[in-house]
Amino acid sequence: MQELIMTYGIPLAIIVAKILAIMLPLTITVAFYTYAERKVIAAAQMRRGPNVVGPFGLLQPIADAVKLLFKETILPSKANIIVFLFAPILTFTLAMVAWAVIPVNEGWVIADINVGILYLFAISSLGVYGVIMSGWASNSKYPFLGALRSAAQMVSYEVSMGFVIVTVIICVGSFNLTDIVLAQKSVWFCIPLLPMFVVFFISALAETNRTPFDLPEGESELVGGYFTEYSSMTFALFFLGEYANMLLMCAMTTLLFLGGWLPPLDIAPFNWVPGIVWFLLKVGFLAFVFLWVRATLPRYRYDQLMRLGWKVFLPLSLFWVVATAGFLVYFDMVPNAG
Amino acid sequence: MILQAIAFYLFAGVTVASAVMVVFARNPVHSVLFLILAFFNAAGLFVLLGAEFIAMILVIVYVGAVAVLFLFVVMMLNIDFKAMREGFVSNAPIGVIIGFILIVELLLLVGGWTIQAPAIGAIATPIPPINEVTNTEALGHVLYTKYIYLFQAAGMILLLAMVGAIVLTHRTRPGIKRQVIADQIAKGHMDTVSVQKVPSRSGV
Question: Of A85, A197, A237, B190, which sits most exposed with the smallest number of CB within 10 A?
Fold first, then answer.
């Protein structure tokens, strides 16, 4: 019994503690990200935003959560109930499990696996199922159309995202996220790979169905898109999953292009600051850009969205993969050449 | 070791169960969803084997792309379930016979299967020890050196299949006005608006 606790019990407790250490701050951050979105957009439109519940309206997300919790979960009578209920759970779970491999500082990561970036890519490519399943299971026109749009959009932009990741991988020589960050010690990848950084960020907007690519939930044509039929906590799970995914994309961009937890310059005042602060600052900035974009840009037309993905980003990122590979081979700079 | 065994039986069990459900599910969309579950658990088995690269590629390619297309097609098709099940009884004997032949063949093959000790030494490219290189690197070293031509040939075949599919389905419809974005951007106010000097009291 003693042995059993020593071999399994303690490691299990450590893992659970690590998971909680990521999950709890993440969930709270997601809740306050919704508040931040309303405040940022209000500021951009010269309004005040939420300011009634608590000081500066800071308790608004909690009030919203309580409200959603107490609402009735409406199940459409023609819906496919199991799939209908499973879709939001899947969306939320996927948005959470991806954080297992995100290093917030050197060594501060739950699972430092060899194929970290591939794991992230795999998990984000699974996100499309939550959308398709919810749209199909609702058994209703608007969710179905919204789901089809959204799925096509997510699959399209995943292709160019994949090539962007390949470009970074070529420059690093490893799939491990810690290695990817450490390879940016001398210069962040957003400088030599600037076009790829832009492509990645725009693809991240499309991947998370954010403005200007939020057609799947284009209110004027599709009511609420794929989660039209969802209410109360099922809706809340979609909502939280979407915002967690946005933060995840910001974290991914930070790790791939903005040097993760590394300071901008490795000199005195900058490297006194702990790495996690830099990481959070960078993620926070990118998260702000997500909101800024939403407050600024109009929605894309659907065919133009597809055109941008397939006819602009795909050739551009393909070209950059070849160009980067050629450059590294020609100047004999290929990392880990064995 | 116990944990690994538990994980193995969990993944293997769910894989087999969901594979069975793919066949028996009444709703084709449910079939595809079970297929995805089976893929996902197969990826879990690969992780247990230590082949994490293949596991991730399986999830990215099969689950993330191929199965999405499957699901699309199945959802969009208006399948008549009754018509699908009509021929079940009449076709059942043939199905049973084919299944029986397949299982006999499999049993013959597996029953007579032995791995000879020299066979491992006869592998063309020795597998580097796992603690020296990750399996991604090991795969890359073999795939892009020794088997480069086969690898490229596989790529060409896939490209050909893709081109073939496009050629077969592509049709040009006459009389469709398409938006040419380059033209729109190249257009300035000089092309569309002109300022006319209108003589007073005589009109244009």
Answer: B190
Query: How many helices and strands (H and E) does chain B possess?
Result: 11, 0
Q: Do A83 and B134 touch (CB under 8 A)?
A: no
CA neighbor of A99 nearest in space, from A47, A165, A21:
A21
How far B64 CA sits from the closest chain A CA (Å)? 5
pLDDT band at B118 (very low <50, low <70, confident <90, very high): low
Domain definitions of chain A by residue range:
1-70, 76-330
Which residue among A114, A125, A129 sits closest to B52, beta carbon to beta carbon?
A114
pLDDT for A191-213, tens place per residue? 888 999 999 999 999 888 887 88
Which two tokens mark A233? 């906590």
Contacts of B71 in chain A (CB under 8 A): 129, 132
- Greatest extent of chain B over all pairs of C-alpha atoms, in Å: 107
Does the ipTM surpass 0.90?
no
**Euclidean distance between CA atoms A283 and A287, whole angstroms:** 6
Q: Is B60 on the interface with A (CB under 8 A)?
A: yes
First to last CA, chain A: 48
pTM, to two decimals: 0.85
Q: Per-residue pLDDT tens for A25-38? A: 998 999 899 999 99
3-state class (DSSP) for residue A230: coil
Place of tokens 């915002």: A243
Q: Which two tokens stand for residue A190?
A: 């957003």
Nearest to A125 among B53, B60, B134 (CB): B60
3-state secondary structure of B28: helix
Q: How far apart are CA B145 and CA B88, in angstroms?
A: 50
**Which helix (H) or strand (E) element contains residue B139?**
helix B135-143
pLDDT at B100 (0 to 100): 92
- Angle of helix B67-76 relative to helix B28-49, nearest 10 degrees, comes to 170
Q: How many angstroms separate the CA atoms of B173 and B171, rounded?
A: 6
A contacts of B56 (beta carbons < 8 Å)? 115, 118-119, 121-122
